[in-house]
Amino acid sequence: MKVVDTTQIYSFAPIAAQNDFAVSPSEQLITLTIGQLQELITQAVQKAIQPIQDEIASLKEQQTQNQAEFERFKAAHRAFAVQTTNDLDALFEANLKPTATPQLSTKTTTKKTSDHIDELHRLMVEDRTQQISIAKGARLLGISKERLRQLKPFIMQDGRFELGWSTVKGKKAVVIKIRQFLK
Question: Which of 26, 100, 125, 132 is 20 to 30 A from 117, comparing alpha carbons?
């Protein structure tokens, strides 16, 4: 057996130490002042935050535009609602006034017409009915609804009655009212 001198073995440096001490760039040490470090951190944070700040500014601008559009819509809706209400009021008023076509005078009122009107007044007073629809008035008198509609101009001329609008069975309809009950 051969004896090995261990002093020579331990005298050689490890292989990593023999490669000119090569260190990767990411593991190199550098020296920075606190001011330089703060500057680098500030730049990195600013670079990361800038896209978010741009998006927030864009959203604020869009919100301002949406708010202005909403205000324009609200104003237009208000104007439309007022105009529609005025139009409906004018339409109701126009329908309550006698039409210009039948210029009726007391000469054209026949005995049968005045009998129907007197009978309607008597029945409404007896029943203490303040108002009735055209259909109910026709049933009370035993005549057709169309005939009672023909009597509307004569009813309007009679001082005992008044025509108005009311809701009958969920619909707007003309009703005949007795003035003595309106007081």
Answer: 100
